[in-house]
Design brief:
The longest helix is centred in the middle third of the chain and has 37 residues, at 296-332. Helix 5 packs parallel to helix 8. This protein starts with a helix and ends with a helix. It has helices at 2-34, 37-53, 60-73, 77-104, 122-135, 143-148, 152-176, 180-205, 219-253, 256-282, 284-293, 296-332, 341-355, 358-367, 376-395, 397-409, 412-425, 430-454, 462-485, 489-513. By secondary structure, the chain is mainly alpha-helical.
């Protein structure tokens, strides 16, 4: 049942992300050709500012979902209502706090942009961004019970429909009117309607939520919850700061136009990260179920399988991006929108190191190890800002990204696995780091070999070169990974799951035909 739920969540999550990706690229193309790269830079800058303001939310969703696992398994409606009630009240306060802080930043917007901008109505644009961010806090609290109950595919289906319609209308508005403010208003309206619809769906799935919610946690339960929340807030704050400050630092020290160019790379990377994140996000609730019911040996095995999956999936896409991202952007937008290989390398190192944290993060969140190393994220924030600013002045945008990577290596890279191995698996973490090194070397070698082979074909014909490189990227890294790991327990376990799913699907189709 766990695997079935995880696969269902994964399938609908990925399908939804494919739709979002296609529509996202269509909107971005219309955006650039109708409004220009400067508007794109403003879009990226304001998105980062609002990401920073969302620090008030950090930790609440994970803490609530973690605490809902047990009452959902035990069908304890009173306890579920108590947590949902707490979540609702907290998110309303968070929304108001973000609104007040966001409004107070308006007089300082000009200081966050290097040079003058020709864009009019900057304050109105920022206000719509702020409204879009704040509005979700008054509706989103009921998402948590659906996710904790291993039914996130329901949210994925609803989101896919709304994102398709919203993006289609945005494209039409951009082509016919070319008005950025109308596009932003469309985003806000659809986000409010989507969140309201999901809340209504939660009421239908869990009818007890519709009644008057007077359930409360005990004093001891509230104390334990807020202890976890405080630790999660500190733990996750660096993730948002690490990702959110890059565009702001680039805007201040390099320029808002560069933010616009970088945002095209970020669109591709974020689309992939979200796409791949659904795979691991979809199984989080199932891992939580394993943690609650299974023994230490089973937990460790599942961790190894997740970590191995991390390597294969993210390693494969690193190879693909190294070979294809610049040629793709050249065909999509033109050579004036591409970065050099040094910047691309920094972007991909950041992408890979972020992705390889998925397995440790999943186990950390589902085991409730929120209180271990609680102040370490503050160090990560300081390291990120200092190194990003220093490197921005020395080597430009690549330096900002490398500052992000350094902060991650000084904190999350080593500490998350250390805590999990010590408190969950009760064994040395050395094996994890040895495997991490092995995985990274294989990815690096695969990228070099694939690039070398790809450079032998059709360099004067870009479209043909891309087609050949796609085929090489599909074959070479996967063949190398297979040769190295075909005898491993992790590989054979994943292969058995694929075979079981294929067999089940084939039987179902045969039954339908019969």
């Amino acid at each position: 049942m766990r695997i079935e739920n995880s696969l269902k969540n994964m399938l609908f999550g990925i399908s939804g992300q494919v739709i979002s990706a296609i529509m996202g690229f269509a909107v971005r193309t219309a955006f650039i050709y109708t409004l220009g790269i400067e508007y794109l830079g403003i879009d990226g800058l304001f998105s980062s500012i609002l990401m920073m303001l969302s620090l008030a939310n950090l930790g609440f969703d994970s803490a609530i979902i973690y605490n809902l696992y047990k009452p959902l398994a035990e069908k304890d409606q009173y306890k579920i209502q108590a947590f949902i009630n707490l979540y609702q009240k907290a998110y309303r306060i968070i929304g108001i706090v973000i609104l007040i802080i966001g409004l107070s930043l308006m007089p300082f917007l000009s200081y966050l942009m290097n040079g003058q901008t020709s864009i009019e109505h900057i304050n109105i644009i920022y206000l719509i961004f702020l409204l879009n961010s704040v509005s979700s806090y008054f509706f989103v609290y009921k998402h948590s019970i659906i996710i904790a109950d291993q039914r996130s595919h329901i949210i994925s289906k609803i989101h896919s429909v709304f994102i398709f319609i919203s993006n289609l209308i945005q494209i039409i508005l951009l082509i016919l009117v070319g008005n950025y403010i109308l596009v932003l208003i469309t985003q806000v309206l659809f986000r409010i309607i989507e969140n309201g619809y999901i809340a209504k769906k939660a009421n239908k799935l869990y009818p007890f939520l519709k009644g008057k919610n007077i359930s409360k946690l005990t004093k001891l339960e509230r104390k334990a919850f807020f202890k976890d929340l405080y630790s999660l807030f500190l733990y996750k704050i660096s993730g948002v700061v690490i990702n959110g400050t890059d565009n702001i630092i680039i805007s201040i020290f390099i320029g808002v136009t560069t933010v616009g160019i970088y945002s095209n790379y970020l669109l591709i990377i974020t689309t992939l990260t979200t796409f791949l994140g659904y795979i691991f996000y979809s199984i989080t609730a199932s891992v939580g179920n394993v943690i609650a019911k299974e023994g230490q040996e089973k937990k460790y095995f599942i961790f190894r399988v997740l970590n191995f999956s991390n390597f294969w999936i993210y390693g494969f896409f690193v190879v693909c991006l190294w070979n294809l991202i610049n040629p793709f952007i050249t065909i999509w937008l033109g050579e004036q929108y591409i970065f050099n290989k040094y910047i691309v390398f920094a972007i991909l190192v950041n992408f890979y190191t972020t992705g390889m944290q998925d397995a440790p993060t999943t186990f950390r969140d589902t085991t409730g190890l929120f209180n271990k190393g609680r102040y370490r994220p503050v160090i990560a924030v300081i390291i990120n800002i200092i190194f990003s600013i220093i490197f921005a002045n020395q080597i430009g945008i690549a330096g900002v990204i490398l500052g992000t990577v350094i902060s991650r290596f000084c904190t999350y890279f080593w500490y998350d696995p250390y805590v999990i191995f010590k408190y969950v698996f009760n064994q040395s973490v050395k094996i994890y780091f040895l495997r991490y090194f092995q995985f990274t070397v294989l990815v690096f070698m695969s990228a070099i070999i694939t690039d070398a082979i790809g450079s032998l074909f059709f360099q004067d014909k870009l479209l043909l070169e891309i087609i050949v490189r796609i085929l090489i990227c599909i074959i070479v890294p996967n063949f190398i990974f297979y040769l190295i790991f075909k005898g491993s327990v992790e590989f054979n376990y994943l292969l058995s799951i694929v075979k079981a799913i294929t067999k089940k699907y084939t039987r179902k189709k045969v039954a339908e035909i019969a």
